[in-house]
Amino acid sequence: MLDRKNISKELAIVSEWVQKYLQNIESYPVKSQVKPKDIYSQLPVAPPDESESIEAIMKDLEEIIIPGVTHWQHPNFHAYFPANVSVESVLADFITSTIGAQCMIWETSPAAAELEERMMEWLRDNMGIPKHFEGVIQDTASTATLAAILTAREVKTDFKSNIEGVPNNLRVYCSTETHSSIEKAVAISGIGTKNLVKIEVDEQLRLIPEKLEQQIRADLDNDFLPCCVVTATGSTGTVAVDPLQPIAEICEKYDIWLHVDAAYAGTALLLPEYQWMIEGIEGADSFVFNPHKWMFTNFDCTVYFVKDAGALIKTFEVLPEYLKTQTRGLVNDYRDWGIPLGRRFRSLKLWFVIRSFGMDGIRNRLRHHIQLNQYFAEKIKESASFELILPPFLNYTCFRFHPGKIEDESKLNELNEQLIHNLNRSGDLYISHTKVKEKYVIRMVIGQTYVEQRHVDFALSKIEEVAKNL
Ligand SMILES: Cc1ncc(COP(=O)(O)O)c(C=O)c1O
Question: Is 263 close to ligand 1, i.e. is its CB under 6 Å away?
Fold first, then answer.
């Protein structure tokens, strides 16, 4: 065991490693090239009985672990959605780990609770979210959406489901494009996935409000209880933005909880020119977005805003003797605002990022990513061998390889699958796919914190080169 009063050598070794990693990240293959069990088989079957030196551990980190890491912070990482970090956030997370506070209630770290409260207000006020919403940090969007659906369930059943169990006629609605976390939350909540109704989308893959209302009316006629609608402000497959205003009007008319899943695209609300995405937000009940995707803040950090914090707290509150405090009711005890009791000091990294970047710095970086994406999409559009599937949006382009002579859809799907596979296997860049109306398409996301024009040019030339060789 290390002596906590004498760690200068170990700190120097680790901090040098961190510096080198950040400086040399472009020398690693973006996607790990290992095969299943490559890492596992190099790890001893039993733990050491004797203490090992930091040097020995770091050597194995470099030789065994790092080859099995996919480098999400590599500027050529364009897969899924990013989980970008910044130096500021890394430093803050190091301090958070050092402090090691467990911030379940105000008393167990007043600064954590109060910094969280203030950070939620900073973000809310800069994102165009009304002032009567209150915020809380959760671990992931999946957890926040589960919290929303559980609260909706309790509100709809007059807070009886927690006590008596869940009636089997509650209904939740989302589009066919919304994230799988909604299905998971509906299953876990006891509402049952047979009561999750997926509503048809339009040409731009946005939920069609008229279809939603038709379904709600039909359900009411059949003795179902419409409980919650989840809209996507930036769906996972194609970053589609559901029309919030008409959906909010429907929810108000039928008294249904409205939850907005902006896990990815929510960060763009920091740019006033994108706040149209949540027109109608006054009519929503809850909203989630992930600073741990595109806001330069280490995973995990999800922001959840709720209009009626009282309903949220009533859903989750339990008060064992050992958690009773004298400050209860005077302060925010965030253990009551979500599922876990224990909580990390996550607001610290938001504070570091926002103060060190400044809001202008954050907005400039986001706009830079959006401009790089427009450039990328323009090049794809100009190319005779590629086809834009949807107009580029934010920092996302959906396209496919489509050489003029091939019109057979299944052949095109095969070619695009092969293209992605070959690109990712090269280790030079990492991109991922989705399906749009049965077409296998490529999703390009330009959201790594330090990505620059040269990385986008590299991606373009690499994609062209690999496609040519198919
Ligand atoms: C729209 C959307 N919602 C929810 C999620 C789930 O996010 P998390 O990993 O934070 O649970 C994702 C993940 O990509 C997403 O794109």
Answer: yes
Residues 145 and 185 sit within 8 Å (Cβ to Cβ): yes
Ligand 1: which of 236, 287, 294 to mutate, judged by most atoms within 8 Å of the beta carbon?
Answer: 236
pTM: 0.96
AA letter at 247: I
Q: Which of 412, 463, 403 is nearest to 440 (CA)?
A: 412
Give per-residue pLDDT as tens, 326-351: 999 899 999 999 999 999 999 999 99
Is the beta carbon of 233 within 6 A of some atom in ligand 1?
no
142 lines ligand 1 (CB under 6 A): yes
Kindly state whether residues 65 and 113 are assigned to the same domain.
no
C-alpha 368/C-alpha 4 separation (Å) is: 43
Q: Please name the residue whose Cα sits nearest to atom 16 of ligand 1.
A: 236
Q: Are 415 and 329 in the same domain?
A: no
Count CB neighbours of 100 within 10 A.
8
Q: What's the gap between Cα 187 and its chain centre?
A: 20
Give the closest residue to 384 by CA, choosing from 402, 400, 397, 398.
402
Closest alpha carbon to 467 in 389, 410, 390, 406: 406
C-alpha 13/C-alpha 27 separation (Å) is 20
Residues 220, 132: one domain? yes
Evaluate: CB of 261 within 6 angstroms of ligand 1: yes
Same domain for 164 and 250, yes or no, is yes
Indicate whether residue 181 lines ligand 1 (CB < 6 A): yes
**What is the band of 320 on the pLDDT scale with cuts at 50, 70, 90?**
confident
Q: Are 33 and 67 in contact (CB under 8 A)?
A: yes
Ligand 1 pocket check for 267: Cβ under 6 Å: no
Residue to mutate (ligand 1; options 180, 290, 300, 304; most atoms within 8 A of CB): 290
For ligand 1, atom 7, name the residue with the nearest CA.
141
Q: Are residues 315 and 444 in the same domain?
A: no
Q: Whose CA is nearest to atom 9 of ligand 1?
A: 140
Contact 264 CB / ligand 1 (< 6 Å)? yes
Q: Which atom of ligand 1 is nearest to the CA of 144?
A: 11
Q: How many domains does the chain have?
A: 3
Tens-digit pLDDT profile for residues 10-54: 999 999 999 999 999 999 999 999 999 999 999 999 999 999 999
Half-sphere exposure of 128 (CA within 13 A, CB side): 16
Residues β-bridged to residue 201: 207
For residue 14, what are the domain limits? 8-30+32-69
Give yes or no: residues 197 and 281 share one domain: yes
Residue 87 lies in a domain: no
Q: Identify the CATH number of the domain in which residue 213 sits.
A: 3.40.640.10
